[in-house]
Every structure is written in C-alpha cells, then in structure tokens.
Amino acid sequence: MVAKKRRLPRYHTEIAWLLLLLLWVCTLWINDVTPKPLTVIWFASLVVFPIYGLVVAFFRRNYALGCFSLITPFVWVILFCVVVFVFGFSEEGPIWERGYPAKSPSEQSQNQ
Predict the structure, then answer these.
(1) How much is the pLDDT for 32?
(2) Looking at per-residue confidence, does 67 or 102 come out higher?
(3) Residue 48 and residue 8: Cα distance in Å, rounded?
(4) How far apart are CA 30 and CA 50, in angstroms?
(5) What are the domain boundaries of the chain?
(6) Which of 25, 27, 34, 16 is nearest to 77 (CA)?
(7) Taking a C-beta distance cutoff of 8 angstroms, is the pair 72, 50 a contact?
(8) DSSP of 40-71, one letter per residue?
(9) Angstrom distance (rounded) from CA 19 to CA 22
(10) C-alpha separations of 11 from 38, 53, 69, 73 in Å
C-alpha cells in the first residue's frame, strides 16, 4: 500500500495571502491611540498568521508565500524605513522636492 501524498487545498493559499496582506494594511493604523485590545490582537496575529503562511507554503510548495511569510513579522520596521526615506524627519520636505542625492550645504548656498 503506497502512502498518498497529502497536499492542502488551494483555498488555504488564498487565505494565507489575504491574512498576510491584512497585516500589512493594518500596520499603518496601529499606533499609540489604538485601543489596547486591538493592539494585542495585531501582535498575536503578527505571530500566528506568518506561521500559518509558512505551513501552507511548505505543503503547497509556494516559495513566494514562504518568503512573504518570513518578512511579515518585520512589517513595521520595513514600513517605518520606507516612510522615513520618503518623508524624512527634517524640514526640507519630501525626497521628491529636494532631489536625490541630497545637495550639500555649499551647493545649496550657491543656488540661492
């Protein structure tokens, strides 16, 4: 008797993708004024959803889902770096207004 190889149904892949994307979207609204229960749910989801995604990726042999599941716990760091890169902390304004690479102070004084 040959053991039949078990594979998860396809809908598990779609559910895993939706849950991980939901985490990325919800991360934008998790802040200091978010109610405590929602923050706890978000942190719990940040652990459970990527594990579910990794299990589905393993059984479905879906490498893209596996990679996305591995970087999802670092979603807040990734989004923070993107926001700081685009908007920055300085008064110079967004990166598209000041040019890249940023001009040195001597170059800025020559242009004025």
Answers:
(1) 81
(2) 67
(3) 18
(4) 18
(5) 11-111
(6) 27
(7) yes
(8) HHHHHHHHHHHHHHHHHHHHHT-HHHHHHHHH
(9) 5
(10) 27, 12, 17, 23
What confidence score (pLDDT) does residue 21 get? 96
- Rounded to the nearest 5 degrees, what angle is found at the Cα of 73, between the Cα atoms of 81 and 27? 60
Give pTM, 2 decimals: 0.70
- pLDDT, one tens digit per residue, over 29-55 is 888 888 999 999 999 999 999 999 999
- For 56, what's the count of Cα atoms within 13 Å in the CB-facing half-sphere? 24
CA dist., res. 16 & res. 49, Å (int): 7
| Token pair listed for 107 | 């170059």
Question: What is the rounded CA–CA span in Å between residue 50 and residue 72?
Answer: 7
d(CA 45, CA 39) in angstroms, rounded, equals 10
Query: What is the distance between the alpha carbons of residues 18 and 31, in angstroms, rounded to a whole number?
Result: 22
Q: For residue 100, give both structure tokens.
A: 């890249």
